[in-house]
């Protein structure tokens, strides 16, 4: 069902008690896919995520000449990039890449190793998100890149032509202030080439760089890589369970410390919820009394919308610091979440000077029924749905965009 531009009626729940499976990680998936493209040699990626970020990357791979066999959630790479360019059609290749940060940024770095000209047409807000800190190091490798900043959707956002050359340098500086995805993109695309990197302004999302290093290491040790569950997706049912009852996530049997959002399990424990790994999966139960949260958002920025929902329902003052990184996501998530919480009547205060947000939550207050037209940002949409589910329900727009990370999210709420 196409839910775009149609209101979706979210029904309130009195309790939440479910046994579910959750999606696998798109962060792991896209990293493993880039490595598969570089390696070829029948390299397999198992348990692949079915998010649109991942399917868009696979579709781009097929257009650039990569031969991939897919059986269920397993893909096998029969050839590699850039050798596969001889099997692609035309000297200028148009790629329609969706709105995924890893999809677009990882792909740009990979394509810089090829000889053909590639034109990239993303969707949504991707063309407005930062990219200069990936373009600059690629230009130092003699890659010809044109960045269209006009916003004209008929003109390629990025046009590039390699191949990247190490003639002038074997060490590159990568600025990570706005995203560590630039560093990961370069590490993955050049993983078989003796190119060194120096990361500067590494103040947020460092766990994702550690994930990249780990995926590269494991792909060299084995000819396959198995994708773990997605702890970003896990946060939504976990938050509902901690506030409203219980959830058993049957396909989650261990923490993945390389996913920044796995810290949510520790946040829930500290707050007073029960979280335990059992033979049947990860079980999360409501605590008798939940304590407010103190959290450095720069360590796991994608977790903030879920944490804000949780905080709004916990008695006391919750503190969130280092919020600036939220401005560079699919939307300005600080602005979008404060707008969302104002709509529901959540008590909060943001200090731009200190870059600190406080949310004064209540376990007794019932937030009002609302009609929400959020930004087309999957995490904002899902956070809005959590508010509605926990409280009085409502109508929610832009619900189709959850397919970016959690295609069956709204089935979970029924």
TrEMBL record:
Catalyzed reactions per annotation: 3-phosphoshikimate + phosphoenolpyruvate = 5-O-(1-carboxyvinyl)-3-phosphoshikimate + phosphate
What is the protein's given name? 3-phosphoshikimate 1-carboxyvinyltransferase
Q: In which pathway does it act?
A: Metabolic intermediate biosynthesis; chorismate biosynthesis; chorismate from D-erythrose 4-phosphate and phosphoenolpyruvate: step 6/7
Domain of life of the native organism: Bacteria
Q: Does this UniProt record's set of keywords contain Transferase?
A: yes
Q: Which SUPFAM superfamilies match?
A: EPT/RTPC-like (SSF55205)
Protein family according to the UniProt entry: Belongs to the EPSP synthase family.
List the InterPro entries: Enolpyruvate_Tfrase_dom, Enolpyruvate_Tfrase_sf, EPSP_synthase, RNA3'P_cycl/enolpyr_Trfase_a/b
| Pfam families per the UniProt record, alphabetical | EPSP_synthase
- Key words, A-Z: Amino-acid biosynthesis, Aromatic amino acid biosynthesis, Transferase
List residues of the Enolpyruvate transferase domain. 17-411
User: Known EC number(s)?
Assistant: 2.5.1.19
Residues of the signal peptide = none
